[in-house]
């Protein structure tokens, strides 16, 4: 682990979580931070993997390229939130395109890998953090991206989270979901026959029509206000060059005003694109004005 990845500045604000969010987040933290940490670090590297995981790697590469293309080739001067950054591939590419990136994930071990892998030429443009992507103190951004980080939550919680992330975005919020299709149902049932090392954590397929309806209903509703000091939630440790020196807030994004006025006025669900590659099926959805 590098010195930057080893040092952490503790800060953050309580998170008012959607129903079922905290329990599922705890299970995902256990899985990605402990059970499958090495597996995911390997999957997102150039190391050889099984045939099943090779299709997942290829699919994720295509999906990441799609989301980056939606944001644009030139991100100079823009702020990007990578919500559920994993080992940091999307954050690195966004930084290479000129963005200032806050990259956050609940799995500290994966964030450490991300900080270690970040090339020297973009490292100062990325603020790696460990914590909840719905933390109200993350700031405002031009683009918010949640690639395959909401797929484990039920539709209502996923829609709520997507709307909250959209409230942080001035231009667009991009997220992915697992489309409810017969092929996906069969593949995940068949996946139980593979060795445990090749199994993915449980996902929650949802139809595009239903998800659009849920997201747009939440975009039109008032945002929850942060709980008082001492309320539910905890400090979020930050990992990365900008916070390793003891700073208590990210220099990459200004503070987010208190919620309550709405979710991202004028935002709605726009384009979508599905990526299928072997055992990987995921669909991107854009929220923008």
TrEMBL record:
PROSITE patterns: SAM_MT_MG_PIX. Transmembrane segments: none annotated. GO terms for biological process: chlorophyll biosynthetic process; methylation. Residues 146-217 form the Magnesium-protoporphyrin IX methyltransferase C-terminal domain. InterPro entries: Mg_prot_MeTrfase, Mg_prot_MeTrfase_C, SAM-dependent_MTases_sf. The keyword ATP-binding does not apply. NCBIfam families: BchM-ChlM (TIGR02021). This is Magnesium protoporphyrin IX methyltransferase. It comes from Rubrimonas cliftonensis. The lineage of its organism: Bacteria, Pseudomonadati, Pseudomonadota, Alphaproteobacteria, Rhodobacterales.
């Amino acid at each position: 682990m590098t010195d930057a990845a080893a040092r952490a500045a503790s800060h953050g604000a309580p998170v008012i979580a959607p129903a079922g969010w905290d329990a599922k987040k705890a299970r995902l933290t256990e899985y990605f931070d402990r059970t499958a940490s090495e597996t995911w670090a390997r999957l997102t590297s150039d190391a050889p993997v099984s045939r099943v995981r090779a299709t997942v790697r290829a699919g994720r590469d295509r999906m990441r390229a799609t989301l980056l293309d939606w944001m644009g080739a030139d991100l100079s001067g823009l702020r990007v939130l990578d919500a559920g950054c994993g080992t940091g591939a999307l954050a690195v590419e966004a930084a290479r395109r000129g963005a200032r990136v806050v990259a956050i994930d609940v799995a500290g071990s994966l964030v450490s890998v991300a900080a270690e892998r970040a090339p020297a030429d973009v490292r100062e443009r990325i603020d790696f953090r460990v914590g909840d992507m719905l933390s109200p103190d993350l700031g405002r951004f031009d683009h918010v991206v949640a690639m395959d980080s909401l797929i484990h939550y039920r539709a209502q919680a996923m829609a709520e989270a997507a709307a909250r992330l959209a409230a942080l975005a001035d231009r667009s919020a991009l997220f992915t979901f697992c489309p409810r299709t017969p092929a996906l149902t069969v593949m995940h049932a068949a996946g139980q026959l593979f060795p445990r090392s090749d199994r993915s954590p449980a996902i929650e397929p949802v139809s595009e029509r239903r998800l659009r309806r849920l997201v747009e209903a939440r975009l039109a509703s008032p945002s929850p206000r942060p709980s008082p000091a001492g309320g539910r939630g905890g400090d979020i440790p930050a990992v990365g060059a900008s916070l390793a020196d003891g700073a208590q807030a990210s220099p990459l994004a200004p503070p987010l005003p208190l919620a309550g006025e709405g979710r991202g006025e004028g935002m709605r669900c726009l384009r979508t694109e599905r990526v299928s590659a072997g055992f990987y099926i995921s669909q991107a959805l854009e929220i923008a004005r």
